[in-house]
Amino acid sequence: MEEATPDSNGPMIDLVNRRVVAVDGGAATGKGRLIDELSKLMRLKGVPVVHLSSGSLYRAVACAALEYSRPRVTGSRSKTDAKILAEALGMVREMNPEKLLELAVARKLEMHGGVVWLDGAAASVDDQLKAPGVGNVVSFVASFLEVREFVNVLIRRQVNEFDGYVLIDGRDITHTVVPDAPVKLLLTVASHVAAIRSPEHTEQEIIARDEADRNHIHGALRHADDPGADVLVVPTDDHSPETVRDFVYGLMKQTFTDLPDIGE
């Protein structure tokens, strides 16, 4: 059986594994750290768990596009690295979704055990997924419905392939990718706090990126004032990763009663 998500035009894979926690949030809200902490805690308790990140898949598409464009910058021998990067970013922003998907398929973009793969091997987080410039075009790449549906299918396949708990973070997970998840959260943080947390972007870049994500026609980041049905807003400004983790684990325990108590 297949079903359509709210922002898709076509069918999506039916979510068979329902042991799912969906976490949305803008830049540096702590969603990735939260899921990392939850994963560590659950593994220590012997609970099978995997962390999936839609953002890492969008970064992989952006990386493939940027790595395709850089060698095609004309006169690169006489240009600085900054100039080459700027022109390559411009080339990426001129790509249509068909080209982006063509590059993703050509680079064999996949996800295995929550890890993004390119060219038949695990992608490097530092050298590829968080390489200079990748973060600047992620929002553009993710703006296309065709790219989003491609990523959503990869995510839902991973959910069903894993026999255990699946923790997913992104910007439209709760209402587009897995709206059928039993636990759905929207993490928030003030932009100046986000800038302190993130070495990759300035506060102005973070504000602009989150605004762009909220203005997406498809899979937009929800605002805290309108998080969506059954989505709990969790501010992280004044809380440590450990306190947020313990709070969310308590929420999970209310839904998934087979989980061990946090003190066990």
Summary keywords:
single chain, alpha/beta, 46% helix, 11 helices, 264 residues, 10 strands, five-stranded parallel β-sheet, disordered N terminus, Rossmann fold, three-stranded antiparallel β-sheet
Protein described:
With 264 residues, the chain is an alpha/beta fold. The protein has a single domain (2-255), classed as Rossmann fold (3-Layer(aba) Sandwich), CATH 3.40.50.300. The chain has helices spanning 31-44, 54-69, 81-93, 97-106, 125-129, 134-141, 145-161, 173-177, 191-197, 203-214, 241-255; strands spanning 2-3, 12-13, 20-25, 49-53, 110-112, 115-118, 121-122, 165-170, 183-188, 232-235. Strands 4-8-3-9-10 form a five-stranded parallel β-sheet, with helices on both faces. A hairpin with a 2-residue loop joins strand 6 and strand 7.
- Give the helix proportion (percent range): 40-55%
> What order do the helices and strands follow?
EEEHEHHHEEEHHHEHEHHEH
* CATH class wording: Alpha Beta
Name the CATH architecture: 3-Layer(aba) Sandwich
What is the total tally of β strands? 10
Query: Largest sheet, if any?
Result: 5 strands, parallel
- Average pLDDT confidence is 92
Instruction: Assess the beta-strand content as a share of residues.
Output: 15-25%
Rg (CA only):
18 Å
Question: Count the helices. How many?
Answer: 11
| Fourth-tier CATH superfamily name | P-loop containing nucleotide triphosphate hydrolases
Gross morphology: globular
Structural class: alpha/beta
- Please give the domain count: 1
Low-confidence stretches: 1-11
Write the layout of secondary structure elements.
Layout: E1 2-3, E2 12-13, E3 20-25, H1 31-44, E4 49-53, H2 54-69, H3 81-93, H4 97-106, E5 110-112, E6 115-118, E7 121-122, H5 125-129, H6 134-141, H7 145-161, E8 165-170, H8 173-177, E9 183-188, H9 191-197, H10 203-214, E10 232-235, H11 241-255
Parallel strand pairs: 3-8, 3-9, 4-8, 9-10
Antiparallel strand pairs: 1-2, 5-6, 6-7
